[in-house]
Amino acid sequence: MDGELTGGHDRAADNGKLVEKASVLIEALPYIRTFFGKTFVIKYGGSAMTDPELKKAVILDIILLKYVGVNPVLVHGGGPEISAWMQRVGKEPRFVNGLRVTDEETMEIVQMVLAGKVNKEIVALINRYGGKAIGLSGHDGNLLTARRHSGNLGFVGEVEAINADLLHLLNKEGYIPVIASIGAGFDGESYNINADAVAGDLASALKADKLIMLTDVEGIFADEDDPNSLISALEVERARRMIDEGRISGGMIPKVQACIKALENGVARTHIIDGRSLHSLLLEIFTDKGIGTMVVT
Asked: Would 131 be classed as within a structural domain?
C-alpha cells in the first residue's frame, strides 16, 4: 500500500514539473510572437566567455533565439586573453580611460587573439550545438570601417561606417554573425575598438529591436554598496547624471554610453544583464519579470 501511495506521489510530482515546464513555454509565447523576425545585438563578455558552463548556456540561448525566429548578432571582445598574451611576450598592458594603448605589436596580438582565436572558438561552439555561425571582423566585407581614436592611444579606433547589408544577408540565410571588435581603416590598417561601442553602433545601424550587454554584475545600482538598490529601468538623463557623479564608473561607462547612443539612434530596448546567471538571455527576453537593468529614454 505504501508503495502505491509513493508511486502516486511521484507521478503527481512529475506531472507538476511537466505543467511547470508547459507554463514557462506559455509565458514565452507572446514574446516569441512579438520578437519574430526582429534583430537582437548581443555583447558577449565577462565570465560568460570564460566559464565553460556559462559559455555553453549562452551559446544554446543564442541558437534557440535563432530557431524561434529572432536574428541574433553576437559581438565579442577578449580583453583578459589579450592581456595574457601580451604578458607572454613581455609586454605590459596599459590603459587610458578604460581603452587599451595599442602599438603596432599589440595590434598584431589583438588580431591574433580576437579574430584568430576567440572568434573561431565561439563560431565552432555554435556550429557544434546545432547553429550556423560565421565569424567576422571589420575587414570582412568592409563590415566595420574605422577611424583612429582622437586620443594618443596608437591603433585604437572608433566606428566610422558599418556594412549593415552584409549582416542582413547573413541573417536572411539563417546564419548567426559573430563579430570581433576590430575595425578596418581607410588605408587597410587595423584598429582595436571597444566591443561595447561596436555593439551599440551595430545595433544602431541594424535598427535592432534590442541591444543586450552581458556583464559580470546584476545591473546598475542606485547605491553600489546596497545590493537591494538594483535599478530595473534607468532613464537616459539619470544615467548621464550618475556617470558625471561617478556613480557609474569603470567598465560600466562604455556599456551605458553604448545603450544611450543606441536609444538615440532608434533601437527600441537596451539591457545590461548578469552573464554569470545561467540562461540569463532567455530570462530577460522571454519572461514577464526580466532581469538586470533596462536603459530607457
From this structure: yes
Give domain status of residue 10, yes or no: no
Question: Which pLDDT belongs to residue 225?
Answer: 83
Structural domain contains residue 243? yes
* CB-count burial class (<10 Å; 0-12, 13-18, 19+) for 141: middle
What pTM was estimated for this model as a whole? 0.89
* Residue 272 near residue 292, CB atoms below 8 Å: yes
Domain that holds residue 154: 31-296
Residue 136 scores a pLDDT above 80: yes
Q: Give the whole-number percent of the chain exceeding pLDDT 70.
A: 95
192's grid cell: 582595436
What's the CATH code of the domain at 204?
Answer: 3.40.1160.10
- Residue 239's contacts (CB-CB under 8 Å, 6 or more residues apart) are 220, 248, 256, 259, 260, 295
Contact present, 75 and 43 (Cβ < 8 Å) = yes
Residue 62 lies in a domain: yes
Provide the domain count of the chain. Answer: 1
Provide the pairing of β-strand 182-184 with 190-192: antiparallel
Residue 101 CB partners (closer than 8 Å, separation 6+): 94, 95, 153, 154, 156
Which one-letter amino acid corresponds to residue 43?
A: K
